[in-house]
TrEMBL record, chain A:
A GO BP annotation: regulation of cell shape
Signal sequence bounds: none
A Gene Ontology term for the protein's cellular component: cell division site
Protein name listed in UniProt: FtsW/RodA/SpoVE family cell cycle protein
Keywords noted in UniProt: Cell shape, Membrane, Transmembrane, Transmembrane helix
Membrane topology listed for this record: Multi-pass membrane protein
Main localization (coarse): membrane
Top-level taxonomy: Bacteria, Bacillati, Bacillota, Clostridia, Christensenellales
InterPro entries: FtsW/RodA
Transmembrane segments: 7-31, 37-55, 62-81, 93-110, 122-141, 153-173, 185-208, 214-241, 268-289, 309-330, 342-363
Protein's cellular compartments: Membrane
A single MF term (Gene Ontology): lipid-linked peptidoglycan transporter activity
Automatic annotation (TrEMBL), chain B:
Sequence intervals crossing the membrane: 12-32
Domain of life: Bacteria
FHA domain: residues covered: 72-120
Pfam families per record: FHA
Keyword match Membrane: yes
Annotated InterPro entries: FHA_dom, SMAD_FHA_dom_sf
Gene3D superfamilies: 2.60.200.20
Protein name per UniProt: FHA domain-containing protein
UniProtKB keywords: Membrane, Transmembrane, Transmembrane helix
Taxonomic lineage of the native organism: Bacteria, Bacillati, Bacillota, Clostridia, Christensenellales
Organism: Christensenella massiliensis
Length: 416, 152
């Protein structure tokens, strides 16, 4: 009665080959050999090998597949970012390194904690405070007011509020039996979504509201309140459509981007043209024109990938997100306490919603809202928060593994 | 040089597609296999409420483990759930059965059975760590501790 771990070395090997061949190809892009690209690739490859093997040997019950998928998405991100803008890729590499530290910290904190208890009240105040601060002091980029500049650094508080939101959600839904005892949580959700709408960060507002609906339904199974809340959010969406020009423009552009090609529809049209010119197999790395897409490095990175690598790779990336979600849900089902279950489920739901909202926006399936693609888009705050959510998933996986091993040991088995 | 790069990039797109597909398929295949195996082991284990381990008697049996289900017949007959091929063990020596949360030992007639060194003739409740002997074979019983309960 021994659970044997299968080796996942082949995944890591192909990932490293993808990275090295991509960076080597890019190092010849300018005509002469460019040392910088090859060096960046080698550094990241060494880092990935060390990270995977060290984590695997320290933590016996590490959830390796979610980690490998996140790493592979980071690899694709580095290659395509270096193609578009080498400077962004260097920054992204640094953020990935910091993100890994954050992931390990989140993992250890979640592994040791029970449900944070009274600290949740502090988390609620902190999250609302951060979002309120954004509303007051933030600078405006692309219609949304969500960046705070401190000296040379700028960060998005809403990305960190996400993590706090997940913890508070799991705490209230697991510790309160009756729904009327959950009122502080309802107020908190309304405050978060309201502040985000007021600061015009509609993508994040959609993300918070969607996560609330999914996790609330999963946690309580109450159809009535979930439908009521859905109706309330639909009403809120309609209201913001009527109230803000910003929202109305987005919907109009989504309906017919070609009508305002020279102006507001330019980004969507360029994205669609990029995907179309890539076709099934792509134009080849370095042969497309992804640099003409506005914000091609963060929100529109999916269009850039689809152009240069082809639609097969783009669909492969969506499939990787799906596998990631399935792994997350399996961990949530394995978790032994309700808090852990809801925490992992919330993190998974949030990451999946985020990736599908932005991919849907880029391929003009739904109106575009400016959020980042987790693990792929450039940007420090989004990389850190995605890595922290991965850390939450990994931390609960470690807990599960320990319980499992204890159960097996009682029967004289073990995990190899 | 420029056109050489173009040729290389154009050719390498097949490699990139292949690499992504290999990673995708490998992740799905390996994680599915591992999940299947884990599921199998965990269901196998969850059928057992505990196990018995041979601690004394014929040298070659010492250390063997037997999982305990709801109803376990013990004896030297080959159709018993737990077969102890020893000459001092009767063909149908005893039964260990579950009633509610507890396990009971019912010795067979004239079968020499001891619980913690004392002779047993009627059904007795077993606790984890009890030493039970059937003839010359001595065993220790372990039951699963109650599961780690939910926190609400």
């Amino acid at each position: 009665m021994i659970i044997k771990r299968f080796g996942a070395g082949i995944v890591l090997a192909f990932m490293i080959l993808f990275l090295l061949s991509g960076m080597l190809l890019l190092s010849f892009a300018g005509g002469a050999f460019n040392m910088e690209a090859a060096l960046l690739g080698v550094i990241f490859a060494v880092f990935l090998i060390v990270q995977y093997n060290v984590l695997k040997s320290i933590f016996k019950h590490l959830e390796r597949f979610a980690l490998l998928i996140a790493d592979f998405l980071c690899v694709i991100s580095i290659v395509i970012l270096y193609r578009i803008d080498p400077e962004t890729a260097q920054k992204q590499l640094i953020w990935i390194l910091i993100g890994n530290v954050c992931m390990i910290v989140a993992m250890l904190v979640i592994k040791r904690t029970h449900d944070f208890g009274k600290a949740n009240w502090f988390f609620m105040i902190l999250a609302v405070g951060m979002l309120g601060m954004t509303l007051l002091f933030a600078s405006r980029i692309g219609g949304a007011k969500n960046w705070i500049n401190i000296g040379p650094f700028s960060f998005q508080p809403s990305e960190f509020a996400k993590i706090l939101f997940l913890i508070v959600t799991a705490y209230f839904l697991s510790s309160r039996e009756r729904k009327r005892d959950m009122w502080p949580y309802f107020l908190f959700t309304i405050a978060c979504v309201g502040l985000l709408v007021l600061s015009r960060d509609l993508g994040a507002a959609l993300l918070f509201a969607g996560t609330f609906l999914i996790v609330f339904y999963v946690g309580t199974g109450s159809v009535g309140i979930t439908l009521g809340a859905t109706a309330a959010f639909a009403g809120g969406a309609l209201l913001s459509y009527k109230m803000f020009d910003h929202v109305r423009t987005r919907v109009e552009v989504w309906q017919d981007p070609w009508a305002t090609y020279n102006d507001k529809g330019y980004q969507i049209v360029q994205g669609l043209l990029a995907i179309a010119s890539g076709g099934l197999l792509g134009t080849g790395l370095g042969l497309g024109m992804p640099e003409v897409i506005p914000v091609g490095t963060s929100d529109y990175i999916f269009a850039a990938i689809a152009e240069e690598f082809g639609i097969i790779v783009a669909i492969g990336i969506i499939a990787l997100y799906l596998v990631f979600i399935i792994r997350g849900i399996l961990i949530a089902m394995d978790a032994r306490t309700k808090f852990d279950k809801l925490l992992v489920f919330g993190a998974t739901a949030m990451l999946s919603l985020q990736s599908f909202i932005i991919i849907g926006g880029v391929i003009k399936l739904i109106p575009l809202t400016g959020i980042t693609m987790p693990f792929v888009s450039s940007g420090g705050s989004s990389m850190l928060s995605a890595m922290m959510q991965l850390g939450i998933i990994e931390g609960v996986a470690l807990k599960n593994g320990e319980y499992e091993e204890a159960e097996l040991e009682e029967m004289g088995g073990g995990v190899a | 040089m420029g056109s050489a790069y173009e040729v290389a990039a154009y050719a390498l797109r097949y490699w990139f597609i292949a690499a992504v597909l290999v990673v995708l398929i490998a992740v799905i295949y390996i994680s599915y296999k591992e999940y299947q195996q884990k599921k199998f082991v965990m269901t196998e284990i969850s059928q057992f409420g505990g196990y018995m381990k041979i601690i004394g008697g014929p040298r070659e049996f010492v250390g063997d483990r037997f999982g305990l289900r709801e109803n376990n017949t013990i004896g030297s007959a080959p159709d018993c759930d737990i077969v102890l091929p020893d000459r001092t063990v009767k063909r149908n020596h005893a039964v260990i059965f579950q009633d509610g949360d507890d396990y009971y030992l019912q010795p067979g007639q004239k079968a020499p059975t001891k619980i913690n060194g004392r002779r047993a003739t009627t059904a007795h409740r077993l606790k984890t760590g009890d030493a039970v002997s059937f003839g010359d074979v001595e065993m220790r019983v372990y039951f699963k501790r109650t599961r780690i309960e939910n926190d609400h």
